[in-house]
Amino acid sequence: MAEILLAILLVPLVAAAFSYWLPDARWARGVTVAAALAVAVLVSIVDLRVSRTGPVSTTGGVLAVDALSALYLGLVAIVGLAAALYSWGYLPARHEPGAARLRLYYALFNLFLASLLAVPLLSDLVLIWIAIDLTTLLSAFLVAFEGRRPMLEAAWKYVTLTTMGALIALPGFLLLAFALTSAGLPVHWQALVPLAGHVSPAIAFAAFLLILVGFGAKAGLVPMHTWLPDAHSQAPAPVCAVLSGVETTAAIYVLFRLFPMLSLLRPAAASAWYIVPGLISVGVAALLLVQVRDFKRLFAFSTVEHMGILLVACGLASRASQLGAVYQMLGHSLVKPFCFFAAGLATIAVGTQEIAATRGLLRRSPLVATALLVGGLAIAGAPPFPLFVSEVSIIWGGFAAGRWLATTLLVVFVVVAFCAIMYHLVGMTFGEVAEADTPAPALPRSPWTALLLVGIPALALGIYLPGPLATLVHQAALALRTGP
Amino acid sequence: MSHVSQLSATLSAADSLLTVLVGLAALGLVISRQMAALLRLFMAQSILLAGSATVLAVGLPSEHLYFFAATTIGTKVVLIPLVLRAVATREIYAEREIDQVLSIPLALLVAAVLAIVAWTLVRPLAVDLGDSTLVLHVSVGAVVLLFGAFTVAVRREAVAQLFGLLVMENGALLAGIALVPNLNAIVEVGVAIDVPVIALVVGLLIRTIHEEIGSTRVGYLRELKDG
After folding, report:
1. Looking at the predicted structure, is the pLDDT value of residue B227 above 50?
2. Which of A93, A173, A373, B7 has its CA at a distance of 20 to 30 angstroms from the CA of residue A252?
3. Phi, psi at residue B44, to the nearest 5°?
């Protein structure tokens, strides 16, 4: 098992080298898809094993995977594979890049994927910090891919704000390392729960607050979210899918890991520190969703909303809501890439990202319009999609735990967000086509494969959860709590 | 296990002096108006940080901190200036003045407020941290972190923002060397790699922005907004 864990990290690194140095730039995309496929296979072997027999690790525990990391690892692998497939046909159709640019794109894409895969694989907290910091740095030029003024502005904000956030979080990690070594424990996330018996609440909460503020910027929590809609709207669609689907979740993954320790120390304070910032993000994102004008920004703000929901769900601290939190993470990471994939095809079909300029899409390109509408319904949390199931579970758990105010506010914000998303998408898909129609441009084929790859599980998981995956989800939810 | 409380009086005094000087170098960043001065300040600060690490390494003793001091000099005093010269010479080595959003007296006032904020925030932790060397490192580290963050937040000049980030990292590590003198080797290497990557990526981005827009005044990039 140890070799497989190591191979998951090495495969994208080797693919990055090949993508950059192979003589023909077109080979880069083949190498990238093959590597992503290999990673997906390796990850499914690991995930099945974790689901059947519990956590696995390398000797010495440098790399270790439990249910929560297995779940996140699986999501990174599938979104990575889908984005690699999508890039194949999308980049030439939308951006017409030269050979050098393509090589750089695929090399960086592989490195970016490696850094994302490292987050759930690593045990050492400071190494996890480094991996998360690298996700930003390695994806900066993917965001700036087109190299025009708005993309550069987006990339600049993205890099400076999230790196600044990471550097605010760094002393938090170092404080945790200090507490862990003082208690004679290894600096691993597995030691966080045992640490609760040794650490003073002041140190633990100081470390947590630094990480919340710092990685809050990375996850796009309000008020540090300002870079997110810019980066997630200006990057090429497959990059948006990875950024929104799994990169923001990396920061939430760390916050999830911290919660059990904090709630052992001070249960009420821990819940409040997760619920309040979470609710602020959900609320502000819901209002921003109403006035958005660009449909990629629409999906970006919905990511801010979902990151907030994840925090609230974790903080509500009841069994049902934490199960909902893990399910929400699963649903979001599959549905959001689907939305960005559909949005990317829509930009090719209509040549704009403006909501107001996109009318009657259903008549122009019925397939794209259907994908966009289905994605919108799924991301807004309509039944029978997985986000409906998870949100009901979170809300149910919140009321059951007697947290009436927080849960009621959550319901209100989620409903506002739902209406806003549907209002914009219905306007785009139906309605009259404004001018005499130019024929819709031919759409590339590979993006559809990617759409199906995330779409089928995204749609099916609302109705049916296969056995091993159900075990992972339940076990992962247990990682958020210490009691029964 | 080695701990900073084992320091002798002389070493402790030397370390305190170096730590405070690291803080002063960060103050220089907040008020500096010369583009070329920013890099020199950062290099000076990194040398001081390496000095402080060496003093702790002698006092504890800790092999890891010798390694840290060496990699700090290697990456921040040698490698980063080389990287920046390679990717963004015109932008970073330009002998020109940079826009200042705040006047120098006002910037000093803000810096004073930030320093007080940092001390107030670290105060409640002092009992748990215990040792005075540790408290000093964490407090000054927090001040440096805030000065760096302030520079990133209010300066409209990309080069100044880059050095704000790099100085923040120095602040975090100033606290780090006293908090965890024995980080394991893989982590040391990881941290040592991370900073030059920041410099490389941000430096390249600065050059691309300069080529595309003809200026590095990123504060004036305001195309993307809602409503």
Report:
1. no
2. A373
3. -60, -45
* pTM of the shown model: 0.95
Task: Provide, rounded to the nearest whole percent, the portion of chain A with pLDDT above 90.
Answer: 82
Please, are residues B165 and A163 in contact by the beta-carbon 8 Å criterion?
Answer: yes
Beta-bridge partners for A124 = A188
Contact A430, A366 (CB under 8 A): no
Residue with the two structure tokens 């030029």:
A141
Instruction: Kindly provide the b/e burial profile for residues B45-59, where b requires at least 16 CB atoms within 10 angstroms of the residue's own CB.
Output: bbbbbbbbbbbbbbb
Strand ranges for B160-215 from DSSP E: none
Query: A455, A465, A457: which is closest to A393 by C-alpha?
Result: A465
Lowest-confidence range among A30-39, B77-86, B177-186, B195-204?
B177-186
Q: Does the structure show a pLDDT above 70 at A421? A: yes
Run of H or E including A65: strand A64-65
For A317-348, the pLDDT digits (tens) are: 999 999 999 999 999 999 999 999 999 999 98
| Range list of β-strands (E), A15-95 | 56-57, 64-65
- Which phi and psi (to 5°) does residue A63 adopt? -110, 135
> Which residues are A63's β-sheet partners?
A122
Please give the angle made by the CA atoms of A343, A469 and A37, to the nearest 5 degrees.
55
Interface residue of A125, A146, A152 to substitute, partner B, most B CBs within 10 Å = A152
3-state secondary structure of B60: coil
| pLDDT tens track for B21-76 | 999 999 998 888 887 889 999 999 999 999 999 999 999 888 899 999 999 999 99
The pLDDT of residue A24 is 83
How far apart CA A284 and CA A359 sit, in angstroms, is 27
Q: What ipTM score was computed for the predicted complex, to two decimals? A: 0.94
SS3 B225: coil
Largest alpha-carbon pair distance within chain A? 73
Chain B residue numbers with beta carbons less than 8 Å from the beta carbon of A292 are 226
Angle at B57 between CA B51 and CA B61, to 5 degrees: 160
B2: pLDDT confidence band, cut at 50, 70 and 90?
very low
Assigned token pair, A436? 């005499």
Q: Can you tell me the distance from the alpha carbon of A81 to that of A117, in angstroms, rounded to the nearest whole number?
A: 12
C-beta atoms of B128 and A202 within 8 A: yes
Residue with the two structure tokens 């030397």 = B14
Where on the phi/psi map is residue B61: left (φ > 0), alpha (ψ -120 to 50), or beta? beta
Q: Where are the domains of chain B?
A: 4-220
Q: In this structure, what token pair is assigned to residue B197?
A: 């990557």
A147 and B216 Cβ atoms separated by less than 8 Å: no
Q: How far is B119 from chain A (nearest CA, A)?
A: 14
What is the DSSP pairing of strand A56-57 with strand A64-65?
Answer: antiparallel
d(CA A159, CA A24): 31
Residue (of B150, B79, B160) closest to B109 by Cα position: B150
User: d(Cα A344, Cα A236) in Å, to the nearest integer?
Assistant: 8
Cβ atoms of A424 and A302 closer than 8 Å: no
Half-sphere exposure of A407 (CA within 13 A, CB side): 20
Confidence of residue B1 (pLDDT cuts 50, 70, 90): very low
B189 touches chain A (CB under 8 A): no
Q: For residue A131, which of A73, A206, A53 has the smallest C-alpha distance?
A: A73
Q: Of chain A residues 138-167, which have a CB less than 8 A from chain B?
A: 138, 140-141, 144, 147-150, 152-157, 159-160, 163-164, 167
Structure tokens at A445: 């084929």
Q: How far apart are alpha carbons B158 and B170 in whole angstroms?
A: 19
CA distance linking residue A435 with residue A337, whole number of Å: 31
Q: Does B141 contact A at CB distance below 8 Å?
A: yes
Q: Which two tokens stand for residue A368?
A: 């794209």
